Amino acid sequence: MSFSAVLRQIPLPIFGNANLAIQFTSKIARKAPNYAGWLVPLGVGGAWFIWPAVSDESKVFLGLLPDPEATKAAAELAEGLNKSMADEMDQDAIDNAHKRIDSTEEDIEKHLKRLRGDYSDLHTQWERSTVASLMMLDDEEEVDEEEEEDDEDDDEEDEEGGDEESDEGGEEKGGDDDDDEDDDDDEE
């Protein structure tokens, strides 16, 4: 049994069987390049009639149009931020914004150091903010108090550093006593 005989037995709507459908499609496909020039006008005409029929929601969903609700929300947010920033700004600062600020020699030197990449003047500020963020404290006074306490503890430890050497000798003697007690336990 040949392939075309098998296709004749397969029923298809409109054509009757699969063999006739394949023959028709192949003849049309051979003539398709002759009609290629009509693709653009047919596409434009189809879009002309189809575009108005597609809802705006579908166009937004497909990304063919911007989302009007998102645009409106973004505009309201921007407007609210602008109003809040304008309210927060000091009117004197706005009035004096055009005036020149006199910089001292120290400020200029700091700026030049920062341009060269030397941020050593900011290390203390960075240290404070790091400690505050790690400790999750909002009040800088508490952070400063804890830093002072830490500094005092470090100073006390440094002062006791000389005494520790003499204490270590005493500890060794105490350690010998412990060994003697262990020896007493062994004898029992």
User: Helix amount, in percent?
Assistant: over 70%
Tell me how many strands there are: 2
Major β-sheet profile: 2 strands, antiparallel
Cα-based radius of gyration, to the nearest Å: 43 Å
Instruction: Kindly name the structural category.
Output: mainly alpha
Spatial sequence of strands, sheet with the most strands: 1-2
Give the topology, please.
Elements: H1 3-9, E1 11-12, E2 16-17, H2 18-31, H3 39-50, H4 56-62, H5 68-88, H6 91-95, H7 105-116, H8 123-135, H9 140-187
Antiparallel strand pairs: 1-2
How would you characterize the overall build of this protein?
This protein is an all-alpha fold. Helices cover 74% and strands 2% of the residues. The chain has a two-stranded antiparallel ribbon. The longest helix has 48 residues, at 140-187. The radius of gyration is 43 Å and the shape is elongated.
Summed up, what is this model?
This protein has 188 residues and is mostly helical. It has helices spanning 3-9, 18-31, 39-50, 56-62, 68-88, 91-95, 105-116, 123-135, 140-187; strands at 11-12, 16-17.
Which tags fit this structure?
188 residues; mainly alpha; two-stranded antiparallel sheet; 2 strands; 2% strand
